[in-house]
Amino acid sequence: MSIPSDLLASENITFEGAIALTQSLLSEIEADSLRDSYASRLSQAQIQQAVASLVNTHNGARGFFVTYLTDDRHLADEPSPGVLDALREAPEIVAELLVKNLAMSAAMVVYHSRHHKPEMAAGSQRVQGRSRHLIQTLQIPACQTLAEQMLENLRTGQGEYEQFFDRWGYDGEQKVAIGSALSEAIG
């Protein structure tokens, strides 16, 4: 059974297009989870193919993660084998985005907590937990390397990620939260 073409990303997919495609894919996966397994529209191999088509490009991967990690459904809490296998197919792109998503969500928990926005803080906490879970489950060596580089940058104030921290204007408390989240993710 071939995958429906409307669930495959093109090489030139836009960020917005990747968000829309991921939303469609998640809706289909959710619908399948409510059906009898013999009536499922998508196999794990087809889910893998659809996700892989997204994460093989930077725009596709960004759109996938922004949707997958923030989605209100519980699909991302226990990723399916098809999703995990697809993420392993693009280790460099996936590792960079997972480490950055972990860092950004940890910083946003602090930000939203300070501004007395518990729902927003809870959403950032969910993204942080899902990112950490994926990093730990996937065991992509590049995740470990990038997280270590980011931790070193936090310790020394210099390195590959200084521009990233400056761009987002993270303060000391946010950087402590980022360091804690990274350390927990990579052990």
Describe the structure.
This protein is an all-alpha fold and 187 residues long. The chain is built from nine helices and no strands. It has helices at residues 15-34, 44-55, 58-68, 81-88, 91-114, 118-138, 141-156, 162-168, 172-186. α1 packs antiparallel against α2, α1 packs across α3 (58-68) and α2 (44-55) crosses α3. The longest helix has 24 residues, at 91-114. The termini are far apart. The mean pLDDT is 94.
Features:
mainly alpha, 187 residues
Biggest sheet record = none
Query: Compute the gyration radius: what is it?
Result: 17 Å
Number of helices: 9
Beta-strand segment tally: 0
Q: Can you give the helix content as a percent range?
A: over 70%
Q: List unreliable stretches of 5+ residues.
A: none
Q: How do the SSEs run, as a string of H and E? A: HHHHHHHHH
Distance between the termini: 41 Å
Task: Estimate the global geometry from the Cα principal axes.
Answer: globular
| Structure classification | mainly alpha
Strand-residue fraction? under 5%
Compute the average pLDDT. 94
